[in-house]
Q: What sequence folds into this?
């Protein structure tokens, strides 16, 4: 039974008969326009009919309760208040129509109701109005923000009221043309039904139901302009300016973040972000982000343990955190090791907000990547030009060119600023001038400083994302909360790898295969490594020319080093994919990092400091910020002294193996002689002219050093060394990057394989099980096959 029929039934109980044609059900029940008057006659019994006037300028004892359907669920608190003695009529769908009597009316007898004067029964039209907080629905500010309470001018009732107000002024022929043009593009709207319906409220109701209130508003303005109703279109646009700016901003963010390009962008090789995204664990107490787990070694006390699950917080809850004094946080910092997915998390949050899934209490979300800001700063046409914060927003988002709400204290704006580590300018936090006017032009560095300080747009919230070594340069007084992305749990790894592929059989094979290697399973805590595992295993399982056996451990570390170095060149130097070419400095940095890593492995430590970098001719930024292979540790973990480490202990061991590999290929010598010779000049291995260099002596020393290490800290170095000398596709790429030419010819691979097999056989009865397992893994890395 629809809402009007139910109203008629209630009226008939008082002796009034109403007979009117049925209309399609509306999500707003029996809404009527302000100037509408209807007269219905009852001729069922042949009696004289009574005229019943429905108006909106009087009060009745009837109050409509609307359905909590999808299109009206946000208007529950925006209905006009009714007298306390009002009778309640439920007009929702899915339940029988009902009415409720207030407590004072429960004792009224039915005959007393029939005796009331029913000649002027009035039904209050529930025209949408500004949201009103009901007494029995009072909530705290935090609860309101969590449930997504919209600004009154962004909520659907406000749009509904203004659309109805403007459209009700259109003449009949214009309204007919409006409906015809509307139905021409919107197949879900029935033209015959709209032409038969003269109620403007029903038209607006149907448009919002089908299109949504933002799309319906845009479509209305567009049609009014096509019908040359310029003044009406301008009036509606002016009244709903905030909605239009917000809608256009959302569309821009959706276009920007809808698709996720992983690795090298290629046509047709992309994934919708929603289909592959798995939200990583985010901790409210950052402890360094480095996973201390290791396949062969116990957790080192130098690295802080991973935080407990009790400290995890959802992305949408970051902006509802409270400071110690109970005030809401303004500046939230999120850090993490390279490859942990900070940019993807920021992109997913922007997409969710734009599509109305989270943080609806935020009026505007402005995404300003520091990578884009750095590119803007280096543009010749703009490098010397000053710009205001309003002009900066307008530069990146043209839809915000008429935005005048930045300085409103009640305007909730969030600036999402990721990749802070790629803004390479040295920001002068102490001497930068103070800005408080959004229209005052200044240098881009000054704008960034004042935005983070809170002097510019003080009512806005700031979300900064970047690597710890870069974020630590911001004065702590400007940061309210520090969070850290911890990556995937074991369940999240499987979920991510499974969601990437429609072929469930292929997904199951990939999940099963990556779990066979404990080190890879640990490293897949980083979403970046998970993506590499998915891509490489997919290529292997789907393409026969890639190889019969899936790649083992070393290729993943090679790709990690190569991809992170390429990203450094692309982001820091603004190079395109086809322009990336490693310089001698890039090779020197990797070689020096490998030398430092080998020294740390030999000393059985995993933390280094600034003076350690200086000893190897390296800078803090190029190692801890831009290399993508190292990270800064919290000062509390290193006794208030800035300490650094590789993003995982196995990455440190891999870089040590890379240094051994580079020295042997470039100079023909080994750095793994016995300790008694360590401080003597290392001679080159004798190699006859034109003869390939032999690997046997190198691996004899490496195996000896591994067996002599009581703590097993050389075991993974030997495993990676075996994988580096495998002559395969990944090794060809490695030679081109590290040397600029193919790897020189090498001999003795078969002899090395026999050496490993003989060592395993000799030690099968005397060595610990872990040592034998590692030697067998070394042999598998050398041949890149299972035994």
A:
């Amino acid at each position: 039974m629809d809402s009007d029929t139910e109203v008629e039934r209630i009226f008939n109980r008082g002796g009034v008969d109403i007979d009117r044609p049925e209309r399609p059900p509306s999500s707003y029940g029996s809404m009527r326009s302000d100037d509408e008057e209807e007269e219905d006659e009852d001729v069922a019994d042949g009696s004289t009919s009574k005229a019943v006037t429905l108006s909106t300028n009087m009060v009745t004892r009837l109050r409509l309760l609307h359905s909590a359907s999808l299109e009206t669920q946000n208007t529950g608190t925006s209905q006009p208040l009714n007298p306390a003695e009002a009778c309640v009529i439920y007009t929702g769908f899915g339940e029988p129509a009902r009415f409720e009597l207030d407590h004072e009316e429960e004792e009224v007898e039915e005959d007393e109701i029939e005796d009331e004067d029913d000649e002027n029964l009035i039904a209050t039209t529930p025209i949408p109005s500004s949201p009103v907080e009901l007494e029995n629905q009072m909530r705290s500010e935090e609860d309101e923000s969590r449930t997504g309470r919209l600004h009154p001018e962004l909520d659907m009732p406000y749009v509904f009221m203004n659309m109805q107000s403007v459209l009700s002024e259109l003449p009949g022929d214009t309204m007919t043309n409006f409906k015809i043009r509307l139905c021409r593009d919107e197949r879900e709207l029935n033209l015959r039904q709209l032409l038969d319906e003269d109620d403007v409220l029903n038209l607006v109701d149907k448009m919002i139901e089908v299109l949504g209130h933002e799309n319906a508003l845009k479509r209305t303005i567009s049609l009014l302009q096509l019908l040359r109703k310029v003044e009406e279109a301008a009036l509606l646009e002016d009244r709903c300016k905030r909605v239009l700016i917000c809608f256009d901003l959302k569309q821009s963010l959706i276009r920007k973040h809808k698709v996720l390009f992983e690795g090298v962008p290629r046509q047709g090789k992309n994934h919708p972000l929603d289909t592959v995204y798995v939200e990583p664990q985010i901790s409210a107490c950052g402890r360094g982000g480095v996973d201390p787990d290791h396949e062969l070694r116990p957790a080192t006390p130098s690295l802080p343990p991973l935080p407990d699950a009790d400290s995890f917080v959802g992305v949408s809850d970051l902006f509802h955190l409270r400071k110690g004094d109970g005030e809401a946080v303004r500046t939230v910092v999120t850090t993490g090791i390279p490859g942990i997915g900070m940019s993807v998390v920021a992109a997913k949050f922007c997409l969710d907000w734009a599509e109305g899934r989270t943080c609806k209490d935020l009026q505007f979300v402005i995404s300003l990547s520091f990578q884009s800001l750095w590119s803007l700063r280096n543009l010749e046409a703009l490098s010397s030009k000053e710009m205001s914060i309003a002009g900066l927003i307008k530069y990146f988002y043209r839809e915000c060119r008429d935005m005048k709400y930045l300085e409103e204290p009640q305007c909730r704006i969030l600036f999402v600023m990721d990749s802070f580590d790629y803004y390479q300018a040295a920001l002068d936090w102490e001497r930068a001038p103070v800005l408080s006017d959004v229209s005052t032009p200044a240098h881009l560095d000054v704008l960034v400083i004042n935005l983070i300080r809170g002097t510019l747009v003080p009512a806005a919230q700031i979300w900064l994302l970047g690597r710890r070594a870069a974020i630590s340069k911001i004065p702590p007084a400007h940061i309210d909360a520090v969070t850290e992305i911890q990556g995937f749990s074991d369940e999240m790894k499987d979920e991510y790898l499974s969601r990437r592929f429609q072929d469930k059989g292929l997904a199951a094979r990939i999940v099963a295969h990556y779990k066979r290697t404990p080190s890879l399973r640990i490293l897949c805590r980083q979403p970046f490594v998970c993506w590499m595992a998915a891509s490489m295993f997919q290529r292997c399982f789907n393409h026969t020319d890639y190889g019969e056996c899936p790649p083992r451990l070393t290729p993943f570390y090679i790709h990690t080093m190569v991809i992170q170095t390429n990203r450094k060149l692309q982001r820091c130097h603004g190079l395109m994919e086809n322009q990336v070419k490693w310089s001698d400095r890039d090779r020197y940095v990797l070689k020096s990092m490998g030398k430092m890593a080998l020294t740390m492995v030999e000393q059985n430590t995993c933390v280094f400091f600034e003076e350690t970098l200086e000893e190897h001719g390296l800078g803090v930024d190029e190692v801890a910020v831009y290399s993508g292979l190292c990270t800064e540790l919290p000062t509390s973990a290193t006794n208030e002294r800035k300490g650094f480490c590789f993003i995982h202990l196995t990455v440190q061991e891999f870089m040590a193996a890379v240094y051994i590999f580079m020295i042997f290929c470039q100079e023909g010598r080994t750095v793994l002689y016995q300790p008694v010779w360590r401080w003597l000049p290392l001679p080159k291995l004798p190699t006859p002219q034109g003869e390939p260099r032999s690997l046997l002596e190198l691996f004899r020393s490496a195996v000896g050093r591994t067996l002599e290490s009581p703590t097993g800290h050389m075991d993974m170095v030997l495993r990676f060394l075996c994988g580096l000398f495998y002559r395969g596709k990944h090794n060809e790429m490695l030679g081109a990057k590290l040397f600029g030419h193919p790897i020189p010819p090498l001999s003795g691979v078969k002899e090395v394989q026999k050496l490993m097999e003989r060592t395993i056989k000799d030690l099968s009865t005397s060595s610990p099980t872990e040592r034998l397992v590692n030697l067998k893994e070394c042999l598998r890395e050398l041949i890149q096959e299972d035994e």
